[in-house]
TrEMBL record:
<keyword id="KW-0472">Membrane</keyword>
<keyword id="KW-1133">Transmembrane helix</keyword>
<feature type="transmembrane region" description="Helical">
    <location>
        <begin position="9"/>
        <end position="30"/>
    </location>
</feature>
<dbReference type="GO" id="GO:0051301">
    <property type="term" value="P:cell division"/>
</dbReference>
<keyword id="KW-0812">Transmembrane</keyword>
<protein>
    <submittedName>
        <fullName>Cell division protein FtsQ</fullName>
    </submittedName>
</protein>
<keyword id="KW-0132">Cell division</keyword>
<keyword id="KW-0131">Cell cycle</keyword>
<feature type="region of interest" description="Disordered">
    <location>
        <begin position="358"/>
        <end position="384"/>
    </location>
</feature>
Amino acid sequence: MFKRIDWKFVFKCFAWIVCLGGIVTLMSFVSVKKNTVTVTNIKILIPGADNFIEREEIDAILKQNEGKLIGRKLEQINLHAIEEKIKSNPYIALATVYADMEGVIHIEISQRQPLLRIISSSGQDFYIDKNGLKMPVSPNFTANVVVANGHILEHFSGKVDTLITKMASDLYKTALFLKKDTLWDSQIEQIFVNDKDDIELIPRVGNQRIILGNADSLQTKMTNLLTFYKEAMPKVGWDTYKTINIKYTNQVVCEKNNPDPLLALTGKAKPAKPTIASAKKVMDSLVKAEIAAELRNNPETADFVVPAVKKSVPAVAKAVHKPVKVIPKPVKTAQKSAVVTHKTATVTNKPVNVTHKPVNGETKTVKDKVKAKSNKTVVKPAAP
């Protein structure tokens, strides 16, 4: 007979009875203790960096709902009612209120996490949190989230509510997708809805608008955009295109910025502006040509040296003359007069200084010869 008894089942039932009895006994002690415990302190915990609600506001809710709590009997305070009152705040997602046997009331609050800020076409301003619920903006804190504006017809009554229009749902899905990807979360700084009800993304890098269309096939569209960024943008430049249309899942359509009006009218490239370097090269060539001509005409008079020219200063030719012994040559009396003409080089800097000592039989200095040539004079050989 004893073999037929299921001892395991009996042991489990006995264990459950003992546990239940222990719980009842413990609750009775707690109830008795609760009648004698008074509230000594209130601890409020608000985790997170977003401070939509402050401790002072929680204290105001407690005072409005229950009055002064410290010093009162714990059994006289309705903790559940306090919890429900705190949850009714539009910035609070979850609240937990409990008390310990030392008379301390603990209040733990979880704030709503905004995901997107909406500025509707009617001028209403509100947030959409991570759960897709509308919540008001706060005078105490401004969340660092993406802003969406333009042709948005979503209405906000001032209380926590669900989304009504399809456009608001698409904006929520788009913002949620961007938030999950670190690249797009950093690159996209604004969302705009145009008159055609197409969603446009405004990037931080580049001046173009990214036409997304709607929130369908977001993964495919953004993958196409990423491929375009990697392969095309480094070659053509980030400011080449005015719009990048990715609303079609199988292609990327781009529109270039307006070309230069002068190029559009003439069809030719604009002439390059003269630079200091080009002007310096022209001046150097003129001075060198002048000196070369002088050496050809008077090889026995002087040796010319062209010094280096400083940056952004017109070239200056300095003539350096060394004394040279000149052996007079007989001149034929019947020789025809030779006319030597020379073009002048325009020099807009200091005049050329040439020093020369008289040599046997010379009546004119080299300075006089250079001056005569620069004034387009005619020099005839001396008569015998």
